[in-house]
What we know:
Two copies of one chain form a homodimer. With 164 residues, chain A is of the alpha+beta class. Chain A has two domains: 1-95, Orthogonal Bundle (Arc Repressor Mutant, subunit A), CATH 1.10.10.10; 97-164, Ferric-uptake regulator, C-terminal dimerisarion domain (Dna Ligase, domain 1). The first copy, chain A, has helices at residues 2-21, 27-36, 45-54, 62-74, 115-122, 143-151, and strands at 78-81, 88-91, 99-103, 109-112, 129-142. Chain A has a three-stranded mixed β-sheet with strand order 4-3-5. Chain A is globular. At the A-B interface, helix 5 and strand 5 of A face helix 5 and strand 5 of B. Strand 5 (129-142) of chain A pairs antiparallel with strand 5 (129-142) of chain B, so a sheet runs across the interface.
Amino acid sequence: MENQNVKDTVKQIFTEYLTAKGHRKTPERFAILDTIYSIDGHFDIDSLYLRMMEQQNFRVSRATLYNTIILLIDARLVIKHQFGNSSQYEKSYNRETHHHQICTQCGKVTEFQNEELQRAIENTKLSRFQLSHYSLYIYGVCGKCERANKKKKKTGNITHKKEK
Amino acid sequence: MENQNVKDTVKQIFTEYLTAKGHRKTPERFAILDTIYSIDGHFDIDSLYLRMMEQQNFRVSRATLYNTIILLIDARLVIKHQFGNSSQYEKSYNRETHHHQICTQCGKVTEFQNEELQRAIENTKLSRFQLSHYSLYIYGVCGKCERANKKKKKTGNITHKKEK
DNA sequence: GTCAGTGCAAACTTTTTGCAACTAC
DNA sequence: GTAGTTGCAAAAAGTTTGCACTGAC
């Protein structure tokens, strides 16, 4: 099972990371890692909290989630994004590089891939800077909102749908 | 004076925007626009608040700053970023397109330009999506932190300087 | 004169922190 | 045994909201 392989691998990476840094290997940390690697796409702390509770039946405090995520980011197993109000995260091991397209009206985030773009970014020469990762956010209006706008064009109202 | 020209132009754009949207032309709104266009680089709401108070001697509430910034973003005169904890903004009219290089250790943000990159991004075909603007954030370790790390490599400590 | 806009304070949301209890080592 | 971790609750930080007052139109 491909998915299980990835989980095993990241568990091993995390174990090595914890050992190297002199951190403890607590059950909470591995449960969090496991849950994160069963999520496709983005998630925030709250949805992770709920998912662990409901689907994995594992109760951790939000404080521990925040603490552990910092370690996972440092271990390069998780990437942090900041689109809307709350921080969004995603697993990063064994994932294809992708970019983000964000609708400024409804807040919907779509991923897309583009090799040329990827190459251009990675080939960028940066002086005195050790590149670790990057995020490209493209903002605009998605097709759905675009159509919705055309319908109610007469009114001068700004429609601000709540993100999230 | 080049800078004054820009200020006059954006004031005119904003005036037209407000008229078109049926919003009022209040002194607060123009004072905020003027202050923003006298700032080079990024700022957050709090520093804008303080700057208006101290340097322009103009007192506005934070609520008004938030309200007005939304209008300015909609009028395409300001761009919003989300690096650290609080939202960062910057003027966008008449500014060269640039990208951001962020040090994950000290949080320092540096701007850089790269035409090839810019072209690659702008040429990206997005289906059913009306591009408005984009942000490329490149994360890594800056030269300064890199050197600092080498010095204290023996200790296994993670140095987490507070961003902001 | 009217209603959009403002200031203020309270509310809300997300994240951080202090501390007692717990447990990996 | 003991220091690193956890959970909890309180605090902090950033942003939004409700409401009375003000002023642009």
